[in-house]
Amino acid sequence: MKTFRVAVLPGDGIGPEVTAQAVRALAAAAERFGFRLAFEEHAVGAAGVAALGDPLPAPTRAAVTRADAVLLGAVGDPALDHAPRHLRPETGLLALRALLGVYANLRPVVARTALAFCSPLRPEHLAGVDLVIVRELTGGLYYGEPRGRAGDAAVNTLRYSAAEVERVARVAFAAARARRRRVLSVDKANVLETSQLWRETVTRVAREYPDVTLEHAYVDYAAARLVTDAASIDVLLTENLFGDILSDEAAVLAGSLGLLPSASLGAGPGLFEPVHGSAPALAGRDVANPIGAIASAALLLRHGLGLAEPAAAVEQAIGDALAQGARTRDIARPSDRMIGTREMGEWIAELVRTPARRPLSLVR
User: Fold this and answer.
1) Of the listed 2, 220, 221, 229, which one is catalytic?
2) With 80 as the cut, is the pLDDT of residue 137 above it?
3) Of these residues, 142, 209, 234, 330, which one is catalytic?
4) CATH topology of domain 120-254
5) 220 included as an active-site residue
6) Digit-coded pLDDT (tens) for 201-250
7) Which residues contact 73 (CB under 8 A, 6 or more apart)?
8) Of 130, 143, 218, 248, catalytic
9) Nearest-angstrom CA–CA distance, 194 and 110
10) Same fold flag, 1-103+257-364 and 120-254
11) Angle at 230 between CA 322 and CA 180, to 5 degrees
12) Taken in order 103, 280, 16, 45, is the CA torsion positive or negative?
């Protein structure tokens, strides 16, 4: 029986709560499908600063590089909003991405019929929505030099090389090949030289995938299209900052930011985390939605460990739980019985172990 090493970084705010339920789902999948997972927990973000004075401490760095996959909760703490840059939780996250070399961030978005009421969009705008955003993750404004502040001025540098664009474009085209064979590449080529390079490079890479249709779009048009005609989008490819913004916008399609997972992939161990932040106001109250974290665990199984069948079982369990009426606060109507973070995690884990059966202990 093979053992896989998973580094677990619960992080800050609601991170530990939702990560615990993702671990529960992973353990249920291992039990059902007969493989072993060795979990090793380490601090990151504000928790790393509190424990060892570093948002990405040395023990965490060592653990993630020797792991087969990394599961992250969330980072962020308002108490450190004005701390020096090297002590901010987000600095630890950026350093973690750079350390692992995870240059391609996959963010799937599905509009589920059972949750259509959660979205502010009309149902006709949600029908058939099933897309993946592929965001370049280790370049652009977040990493460019020079950067900094001097008096009443500040600078950030937006830089991309053709090689950086090529490698993430290939991830997007490969993903499209396994889906509906369409790539929408998003840039601002009418204004930015980096976007002109982006468009030229993506066009060149597209020739390697003649079976995939490529369309280019400016980011402002893409933002509008996400809320007016998202069903026409299969794989949306874009750079770091645009991807950060558009993927949060796409949460209105699913109905809640708490539902969305992500997988960050590169040459080494993958990094898997929900799209949402640390939500400190919700921490410790057992109200956060763990589905984004649990769905990230499914991506960990598929992309991090190469276990497609267990991944599908976790995703099926999420769908079954929602179809059976499992609702945390963010996706509940006034007439629904709301359940907490832990109960949602237990519900899904039981469905992973025993498919298509509603857990008897959770029947209202």
Assistant:
1) 220
2) yes
3) 142
4) Isopropylmalate Dehydrogenase (3.40.718)
5) yes
6) 999 999 999 999 999 999 999 999 999 999 999 999 999 999 999 999 99
7) 9, 10, 11, 12, 14, 15, 16, 18, 19, 273, 274, 278, 293
8) 248
9) 30
10) yes
11) 90
12) positive
Model pLDDT for residues 89-126, shown as the tens digit of each residue? 999 999 999 999 999 999 999 999 889 999 999 999 99
Instruction: Quote the DSSP letter at residue 304.
Output: I
CB 175 within 8 A of CB 132: yes
**Are the beta carbons of 344 and 291 closer than 8 angstroms?**
yes
Q: Architecture of domain 1-103+257-364 in CATH? A: 3-Layer(aba) Sandwich (3.40)
Question: One of 188, 209, 320, 330 is an active-site residue; which one?
Answer: 188
Is 361's pLDDT higher than 60? no
Lookup result for tokens 């209202």: 364
What string of DSSP letters covers 27-63? HHHHHHHT-EEEEEE---THHHHHHHSSSS-HHHHHH
Phi, psi at residue 209, to the nearest 5°?
-130, 70
Token pair in block for residue 362 = 């959770």
For this structure, is 244 an active site residue? yes
Q: Which listed residue (68, 244, 320, 330) is catalytic?
A: 244
Counting every residue, how long is the chain?
A: 364
Confirm whether 142 is a catalytic residue: yes
Respond yes or no: is residue 2 known to be catalytic. no
Domain-wise residue ranges, the chain? 1-103+257-364, 120-254
Full-model pTM: 0.93
